[in-house]
Design goal:
heterotrimer; A mainly alpha (371); B alpha/beta (530); C mainly alpha (316); A: 371 residues; mainly alpha; B: 530 residues; Rossmann fold; 3 domains; six-stranded mixed sheet; elongated
Chain lengths: 371, 530, 316
């Protein structure tokens, strides 16, 4: 009550940027501490991420995965749930893609196979998310704890299946046999070649379009449909939902199923699109990056697209800097991501009031508040 | 507003020494003035009652005495010494003790551990317990407050927990005992026992400040009484010099006269909602409604009067489908409901029952939603708003703009977040939404709470228009004026029961006051008119 | 041969369980005071890095452990600053600390030691040694090696279970900590500072996480490696929940989890009678599976501290 509230434009645009700036500042201090010039690193990062078609293509590949996990975290958040389990749901999504690809791709053509793989990824992710959702909705088990446990269970399950069932016979590596071509999502180079456009080789593939479509669909679902309206009502005010006659338990199941399906589609990008075989560790923390993306993007698909691009650029840029400066490790980007979550998530009440005071001290803004 | 001038504190120079003197206390929370220039003197060794409706500022005043809040202005003296109470710690050190309405007990600890917490005489618990136990036993002996010290508090019945609370406070050496609504959760027998204990304590020299809104308790126990309303003291006197009716009038604060418009020529129609034997038990196991019977007729407004907190909220929740009663039946639009399959909010709307909830913030709107999204809350399933599962956003916006026009909601910005409107404008939007569905039954709680004068008139006009259109309306309000201005029939609720029912023409202020205060003039059973 | 097997199983179980025990106790302290701590993993990881880095530079076991505890306490305070002082989301803060640590320790290790994130192996004189090196010969395999063949930190961890139990259930401070996790309003009304009690619990929590991290580097492996905690912090969290926020049952859960880990490694490729070959992963999954099943079975019973995860705001 004592602190003035932020105007909407500041809340949506300025605050995330301030959070990012502070996180960058801290990371810059860390770089300076280990004897690197933060400005030089940032320049190299930007060049690595956007300076070449190839780099940009890599950036978009990372972006694809982050869009999926960011949307996953956001949809759950709109239902009032904190989904830490995107990591595990993505793992299951990849497993789903792998199983269907290994099982059916020999007999089915691509135009049947690829939709099937997308459905398998989403379906496996959704089912994996539904168990914690059910336990939260009907047994009151804290979804944060259960989704953490399910992350480990997902990984263990993947290891078991890869080692004992799906591993390519005779291979030393813990990975499946390569998929048949019909189960491989065309990559950007191939796709652009259809139109006679030259595109550098990179992991970027058609699931980028799928991610964009998912962002659009999530927007449409949440803000354009009755079902989305109900989901948001439950997340924003349990009392109002009760008054409106919307049972929260159903919405918890729906929110987590959608969230899990979105996270699961990481499998389309990483397994069917890039690796074209099932392997371990393909999620590589993207589920947690999704938390940072959703927080920076204020749980809105448009914001999430931008935040995903930002983190995609950071990861790609970080990898490039690693080549130029052997001392630099891309974990710097993970650190930055952690600070973004800390500042915009856990310390939301630290910076915002200060910002609000600064904005209200500016002339001509205080008066624009409605009575 | 100030029809009873506060008695100047200085007018009582001689007499018993003062235990507590609070002078010129002011406390604001944001825009709300919870206490405004409050002066209170409590004589040592007396029981002093502090009465007023919910939100009158009694608890806030006492929280400042107990160091939970620091006053914005004013001074406090305890036993003649100036007290600067920055924390509860300071208050306890000055000999003050408070028993809160919500018990300050830890369920998982034993009774003894609860008493000791914060005042453990030794760093090792076993030693501390050994030192505390005999002292507590003699305290229990002398006061009659008996509790099993080794029981887990979670296993104790409510009455025991309260005794424990008092014991805890006395154990810390409190000479002034502040009790916040102590009987709210007690059975009549437990209340009886508590009053016996309090009388004993008074005879032993303890000062008791009793926050309550039950006037019979004041008459039974207190020596002096102070009435608060809207953050101010409006009346203060010795209990011998007053009557429940006078206190009730001071609490409710009737402005001068009641503008009672002649009832229009609409004859009440048939019964559209018929509830029988509604019984509600809350999560604490306290019975909130004791077998309420209620019938609503088309074209009639039934007003429920009563000091707030006597079961009106539970009644609203049961009738709107938000709460399932333990017993009772409900007939609505040809359907019958029993506790095994109670009305749900969705069914209620389908049967044309609209509900304007008391708690706007928690229920009636989603504060983060734009006004046009809150403008259809509960009706999002209607075809006009979501044909084919997609929201018809243009229609939603148009209808909200329309509601804003009709009910003069300002600013007229459907895009603005619901939480950014003022309380009165939020309420108008909610009423516009619920009334706009042309309901057959309307259940409405506190329709004008936090609404400015001009808007009150307007809202009353809308409710009357709805009655004329043949809607059956149940109106719950803590404003007696409002009840009398709108209702055709008036019910009075007290302690979960209907203690009286009158046609509005037969209502006299004095009698309603007595019914609200539960000092019954002539016993009367509430029955639905056939 | 059975005695040898039993001795090694016992020894290995204790070794695996030690960091779990320390972290689970840390979790018990924080959460009984009402602060959710998902940051056990991060604190342990940063402590491990601090122990390795400082141990390498100074060559002193004591200073290494001090550094480990110091950094973990600082992180606990940061958690407290975000969640107790500023009422931020406890879950998010814990997650953020874990992610920051995961990145930052790797960054610092790579920059300072230039071995791809590893630190140089610590010398024998810095590492912890068994307290009674000759015990195996005197007392046999089971008691001598299995039980008495460990370094001091293992026994410290076991002793700390008793200490934490005593603190929580037999001292004034413990009474207050339990109360503040159940009903902070009451603690406030009793004239005690909610904030101070929670910071105190978090400080002790930091020391315990610091010891756990130090153990990983000074006893289990000789050097720091990125993400070397590998989810142990979460497993400790599971053990704490499995032990229903009580020190002694949490110890039992840690020993059980440690034992499962030990036999999972042993059973690899072994065919058991009647059952056949048990997949390692099935055993590794058991701690998490147990915890989920237990959480689901908790329905209707309030076993977690009542005020857990809810920032304390004075009501008016």
């Amino acid at each position: 009550m004592s602190a003035p509230t932020l105007p909407r434009w500041a809340d949506v645009v300025v605050l995330p940027l301030v959070n990012l700036a502070v996180a960058l500042l801290i990371s810059g201090a860390v770089m300076a501490l280990i004897g690197q010039n933060p400005l030089e690193v940032l320049t190299l990062m930007a060049k690595g991420a956007f300076g070449s078609m190839r780099g940009f293509s890599y950036t978009l590949y990372y972006t694809t995965t982050f869009i999926f996990t960011g949307l996953a975290v956001a949809v759950a958040a709109h239902g009032g749930l904190f989904n830490i389990g995107a990591e595990g749901q993505a793992t299951l999504g990849g497993l789903g893609a792998g199983i269907f690809a290994l099982w059916l791709a020999r007999d089915l053509p691509g135009f049947v196979m690829l939709p099937l793989i997308i459905l398998a990824s989403a379906g496996f992710g959704a089912l994996w998310a539904l168990v914690p959702a059910y336990l939260q909705a009907y047994r009151g088990s804290h979804i944060v704890i259960t989704t953490i446990m399910f992350n480990f269970l997902a990984y263990t399950l993947l290891v078991y299946l890869l080692v004992n069932v799906l591993k390519a016979p005779g291979s030393m590596a813990v990975e499946s046999a390569p998929f048949e071509p019909s189960a491989a999502l065309p990559n950007a180079q191939e796709a652009f070649a259809w139109f006679g456009i030259e595109w550098p080789s990179s992991p970027l593939n058609l699931s980028f379009l799928l991610a964009l479509a998912a962002a659009g669909l999530v927007y449409a679902y949440l803000w354009r449909t009755r079902a989305g309206y109900r989901l948001r009502t439950v997340g924003a005010s349990a009392g109002a939902a009760e008054y409106a006659g919307i049972p929260p338990a159903h919405q918890i199941l729906i929110a987590m199923a959608i969230s899990g399906a979105l996270a699961g589609m990481v499998g389309v990008n990483e397994i069917a699109g890039v690796n074209r075989r099932l392997l371990l560790d393909f999620v590589a923390g993207a589920g947690f990056t999704g938390i940072a993306v959703a927080m920076m993007g204020r749980n809105h698909p448009a914001g999430i697209l931008l935040a995903s691009l930002l983190f995609g650029a950071l990861f790609q840029g970080g990898a490039e800097v690693g080549f130029e400066m052997p001392q630099f490790s891309r974990e710097m980007v993970v650190t930055l991501q952690g600070f973004v979550i800390l500042l915009s998530g856990a310390m939301a009440y630290v910076l915002a009031p200060t910002l609000a005071r600064v904005i209200h001290a500016l002339p001509g803004i205080a008066k624009r508040r409605p009575a | 507003m100030n029809d009873h001038t506060p008695i100047p504190a200085t007018s009582r120079e001689p007499g018993p020494p003062l235990a507590v003197r609070m002078a010129g206390i002011r406390k604001t929370f944001g825009p709300v003035r919870a206490n405004d220039d409050v002066t209170l003197d409590v004589a040592s060794g007396t029981v002093h009652a502090l009465v007023g409706e919910n939100g009158a500022g009694k608890s806030t005043l006492m929280s400042q005495l107990y160091g939970l809040y620091v006053p914005d202005a004013g001074t406090i003296e305890v036993f003649g010494k100036p007290a600067h109470l920055r924390s509860t710690h300071d208050a306890i050190a000055m000999g003050l003790g408070m028993v809160h309405q919500h018990f300050m007990l830890v369920d998982t600890l034993t009774a003894l551990e609860n008493v000791m917490l914060g005042a453990e005489p030794h760093a090792l618990l076993l030693r501390a317990e050994r030192m505390v136990r005999p002292r507590l036993q003699s305290l229990m002996e002398s006061t009659g407050l008996r509790v099993d010290l080794d029981a887990r508090v979670g296993d104790l019945p409510v009455g025991d927990r309260q005794r424990l609370e008092i014991l805890k406070v006395l154990f810390r050496g409190a000479k002034v005992l502040i009790l916040d609504e102590p009987t709210a959760v007690l059975t009549p027998q437990e209340t009886q026992h508590l009053f016996g204990v309090l009388a004993t304590l008074r005879s032993q020299g303890t000062t008791v400040i009793l926050i309550t809104h039950k006037l019979d308790e004041v008459m039974r126990l207190a020596d002096r009484v102070t009435v608060m309303r809207a953050g101010r003291i409006v009346h203060e006197c010795g209990v011998k010099d007053t009557s429940p009716a006078q206190l009730a009038e001071a609490m409710v604060g009737r402005k001068v006269n009641i503008g009672r418009p002649a009832t229009t020529g609409v004859a009440p129609g048939e019964v559209v909602l018929d509830a029988k034997g509604l019984q509600v038990v809350d999560a604490m196991g306290v019975t909130r409604l004791h077998g309420i019977d209620l019938a609503l007729r088309a074209g009639q407004i039934v007003g429920v009067a009563g000091v707030s907190g006597n079961g009106q909220s539970e009644l609203l929740e049961v009738l709107s489908g938000l709460r399932t009663p333990r017993a009772g039946t409900l007939r609505l639009a040809g359907e019958t409901f029993a506790p095994t399959r109670w009305l749900t909010p969705r069914t209620a709307r389908r049967l044309r029952l609209a509900h304007v909830p008391e708690d706007r913030h928690a229920r009636a709107m989603v504060m983060d939603f734009a006004a046009w999204e809150s403008g259809i809350l509960g009706y999002e399933g209607l075809l006009v708003y979501s044909g084919g599962g997609f929201l018809r956003r243009r229609r939603m916006r148009e209808d909200t703009r329309d509601m804003m026009e009709r009910f003069d909601v300002r600013p007229r910005q459907p895009e603005l977040a619901s939480g950014r409107f003022s309380g009165g404008n939020q309420q108008k939007l909610v009423l516009a939404r619920e009334l706009g569905q042309a309901p057959h039954v309307l259940v409405v709680g506190q329709p004008t709470r936090g609404v400015d004068i001009g808007a009150i008139e307007f809202i009353h006009g809308q409710l009357r228009k709805l009655r004329e259109a043949g809607c059956a309306i149940l109106l719950v309000s803590s404003e007696l004026d409002e009840i009398l201005a709108l209702s055709d029939r008036v019910l009075v609720m007290n302690a979960g029961r209907i203690t009286g029912e009158r046609p509005v023409e037969a209502c006299t202020e004095a009698e309603l006051g007595l019914l609200m205060a539960h000092t019954e003039v002539h016993p009367e059973k509430a029955e639905a008119p056939a | 041969m059975d005695a040898i097997l039993a001795g090694t199983l016992l020894a290995s179980t204790l070794r695996v369980a030690t960091p779990l025990i320390l972290c689970a106790l840390a979790g018990v302290l924080a959460e009984r005071s009402g602060v959710i701590d998902l940051g056990l993993e991060g604190k342990m990881l940063f402590a491990a890095f601090a122990a390795a880095a400082v141990g390498t530079v100074t060559g002193s076991t004591f200073v290494a452990m001090l550094a480990a505890c110091g950094i973990a306490v600082l992180m606990s305070w940061l958690h407290g600053f975000a969640t107790v002082t500023h009422r931020g989301d406890q879950v998010v803060s814990g997650m953020a600390l874990n992610i920051i640590t995961y990145g930052l320790t790797a960054v610092l290790a790579i920059a300072w030691f230039q071995q791809g994130g590893q630190t140089p192996p610590l010398g024998e004189d810095v590492r912890l040694r068994p307290l009674w090196p000759g015990a195996g010969e005197t007392f046999g395999v089971i008691v001598g090696e299995g039980l008495l063949g460990h370094d001091g930190l293992v026994y410290t961890a076991l002793a700390l279970v008793g200490v934490v139990w005593f603190l929580l259930y037999r001292t004034r401070l413990g009474l207050r900590l339990r109360a503040v996790g159940e009903n902070p309003n009451m603690v406030d009304a009793a004239g005690l500072s909610v904030r101070r009690l929670r910071y105190l619990a978090l400080s002790m929590n930091g020391v315990l996480c610091g010891l756990a991290g130090a153990y990983l580097v000074l006893a289990q492996s000789a050097a720091f490696a990125p993400n070397m905690t590998a989810g142990r912090g979460y497993m400790a969290l599971a053990a704490m929940i499995f032990g229903r926020w009580r020190p002694v049952p949490a110890l039992a859960a840690c020993l059980l989890f440690g034992f499962l880990d030990t036999i999972a490694v042993r059973l690899q490729g072994v065919k058991l009678p009647h059952i056949g070959e048990v997949p390692v992963q099935a055993i590794q999954a058991l701690p998490y599976l147990f915890t989920v099943v237990l959480l689901a079975a908790f329905i209707g019973r309030n076993v977690a501290p009542q005020a857990l995860g809810r920032p304390y705001v004075k009501e008016h």
